[in-house]
Amino acid sequence: METSDDSSGNIRVLCRFRPLNEKEKAMAENICVDFGPDSKTVMMRAETENSEPLRFVFDYVFDPSTVQSKIYKVAASPIVDAVMQGYNGTIFAYGQTSSGKTFTMTGVITDPELMGIIPRMVGDVFAKINNADEHIEFTVKVGYCEIYMEKIKDLLDPRKNNLKIHEDKARGVYIEDLTESYVTNDREVYELMRIGTNNREVAYTHMNAGSSRSHSLFCVTITQTNKLDMSTKSGKFYLVDLAGSEKVGKTGAEGKRLEEAKNINKSLTALGQVINALTDGKSSHVPYRDSKLTRVLQDSLGGNSKTTLIIACSPHPYNEAETLSTLRFGIRAKSIKNKAKVNKEYTVAELKLMLTKAKEEIMLKDKRISVLEQAVNKSGILIGGDEESSTKDESELEISKVSVYDDMIQELEDTRARLSEEVDMNSKLRQEIEIKTKENEEIKGDYDFLNKHIGSLQEKLTTTESTLAEKEEHIEQLIMAQEYLRNDISSLNEKKNELEQTIIKKDEEILKWKTQPREAPSTVNIKDLEHQIQVLRAQLQEEQKKSKELIARCEHLERRWNEQASNAIPNLDKIKEYLREEAVREEQTLWNEEKQTLMNDFQAILEKSAELQIELNETKENYSTMEQALSEEVKKLRSKNESLEKSFEQSTLNSHNLFSQLAESKIQKQVVDRKLANVNEKCLKLEAESKKDKEKLAEAEKFIKDLYAKYEEQNIINRVPFGSTIEVGSGSTRIRKSIKGGKATIPIGKNRSSDADTEAGSKPDFSRPRLLTGEHNKMFQMPYKDNCKPF
Ligand SMILES: Nc1ncnc2c1ncn2[C@@H]1O[C@H](COP(=O)(O)OP(=O)(O)OP(=O)(O)O)[C@@H](O)[C@H]1O
User: Where is the sequence biased in composition, kind Basic and acidic residues (predicted)?
Assistant: First the structure.
């Protein structure tokens, strides 16, 4: 296997060396590191011949020739799998400026060979989702932010530039109010990456033309719901591109860049201190709160996450000191231990199962209580038994009492243990209810958000409708303008026709003047005639003048033609004709030009109107598609809304059920408590009664002992077996008495002398009783406890 097993919970540390850049190549020195054959070891070359090379071992070492796909396979693929199983995952890149962190994490999104971990991960996640079982429903959310100058800026909504960090049991550490967009395919994620990257703080330095001036966090949350049992799992994936540590002497940072560099180095120092505290085995406090970076990465460093650290290095001796420091950082980080767990939420079915188990437990307990009660009742009969009818051996009674007490005590212990389990379970149930209530609140939040979204979509629709109306109005105005222009053009055409007619008439007139002889007026008076002659003369003069001018012009032209062309126009008429035609042509050209301009304008208007018509059609089409999409969206939202409402109702119902079940189990617990109290009370009674019995027994023993002493004193008898007959006295004064059990009283002693028979004048001797039955000698030797007891 290529990667090390992370079942130990340790952070995996991978080391990547980039190829030499142009600047380093220009310095013409060799690289300062050697790579071991096991792909895990890197050696910093020894400075002198006598000194040893420094050896560093990581989970994997990538030499400069390693391609992006290999990095993804080793570094990210296992974490993607874990996130898909409901674990949290983190990959972060650390290293000096220009060491290749951004190239490793993002690379060139549009190039399949050069794309980095994030775009590859996105593709992988959606491929896995598409291949997943049908009953698993996925939602994917993406957030993107940066920590710049100790402030968290939302890269998908840069107006939010000072977000706060919070922590709670259910979500762990999180950034409050961070925009998280739901995405359904890799293209949508790439678009968000593009937007976010454009909003990032990047600047030129002497070390890197596109140096990241902030730490960036790309966050993907994948939630999966199993539709069969409604269980949910949710994995959060942080992909962190840290800003590079830099020596300001090398980067040439000044002014704002210098301030940025100070902040970057400060937060990286805080990161180093957190790692030290986690790994030195001495620190009781981990200073997560010393910087925003370490606070956000709290779960990734020593918490609930499967984490991989990629340290990026330059192989050139110019960066040797920074490379050494980076390698040491990686070695320290290797021993951080995390406690990753699947983020699972209990389903209603699972909660039901827990309840059923709790009920079974209660039933079991009830049974035990009834057994206890029976035992107590049984011992009560024994204790309360009639003195006369109690012929049972007392020692047996004692033994049975003691064993009953032992059983009862054991039962009580068991019950107490079970009750404490019950209390634990109840508190677990309460926690579950709290989680469910929170979930309900979240669903309600989603529901409100959807409502808002619908509202904004409706607003958008209204705006689009009004834009459309404006466009339609504009088109109407254009059509009217087009109509006016058409009229103008037709009136211009008419004018042109008129002008052409006038020119033709004029030409005819001129021709007439020139060709037709003028007839003398027949009936005119002299004055008129003179006037006409004057007019004609004037006209003639005018004509002559014109013709002179024409002749002059012709002569001039003739001269020019003679000068310029060998085949000049030979006759004047032709010249005149030519000139006239030229004049007409000139006017015609002017008119044609004007007409052409008008036609062009008209054409342009026509084209514009066609374009507008197309635009209108497109807008209409877009509008109808949008309307369709919108109505679909609204439909979807409504159905989602409905299902949310349903699940909200269901959850409310479930939480009610849980509450009522909790209340029920509380009541049952109270009942059990009461029963337990009763049992305790009975036990106490039993104990008191047993104590009394013992006292009575002691009294009886004392009495017998006294009596026995008395007999011994009187030398009557030592021990008498049960059922024996004692004879005291002699002759007729003999008194016989059978001894039964321990209750017999024997009328012996000097006070009985009045009852005595004084046969043959002898006095009865009460001082020497003797046994009449049983083998008394044998009996006397018997031990006290066997079958011979004092009565
Ligand atoms: N493995 C590699 N192969 C080819 N080019 C690389 C490689 N690693 C880095 N580069 C190039 O080196 C330059 C610097 O890399 P990059 O910007 O990723 O560094 P960085 O560590 O993110 O720097 P900073 O901390 O200043 O942002 C870029 O032009 C990048 O394309």
Answer: 752-774
Helix axes 348-383, 394-515, angle to 10 degrees: 170
Q: Please, are residues 715 and 768 in contact by the beta-carbon 8 Å criterion?
A: yes
d(CA 133, CA 513): 105
Q: What is the pLDDT of residues 162-188, one digit of tens each?
A: 999 998 877 889 999 999 999 999 999
Query: Could you tell me which of 99, 14, 105 has the C-alpha nearest to residue 310?
Result: 14
Cα–Cα distance, 674 to 553 (Å, whole number) = 140
Quick one: which atom of ligand 1 is closest to the CA of 242?
25
With beta carbons less than 8 A apart as the criterion, state whether 194 and 185 touch: no
Q: Could you tell me whether strands 89-95 and 232-241 are parallel, antiparallel, or unpaired per DSSP bridges?
A: parallel
Output DSSP code: residue 392: S
88, 383, 49, 53: which is closest to 219 by C-alpha? Answer: 88
pLDDT tens digits along 409-443: 676 677 667 777 777 777 777 777 777 777 777 77
Pocket test for ligand 1, best of 21, 102, 263, 311 (most atoms within 8 A of CB): 102
Interface confidence: ipTM more than 0.95? yes
Nearest residue to 227 (alpha-carbon basis) of 633, 643, 641: 643
Q: By C-alpha distance, which of 224, 225, 117, 238 is closest to 172?
A: 238
Nearest CA-CA partner of 194 in 100, 106, 101, 72: 106
Looking at the CA of residue 213, tell me the nearest atom of ligand 1.
Answer: 27
pTM over 0.90: no
Among 103, 245, 310, residue to substitute to test ligand 1 (most atoms within 8 Å of Cβ) = 103
CA 471 to chain centre: 45
CA distances (Å), origin 329, targets 36, 66, 310, 319 = 20, 22, 11, 15
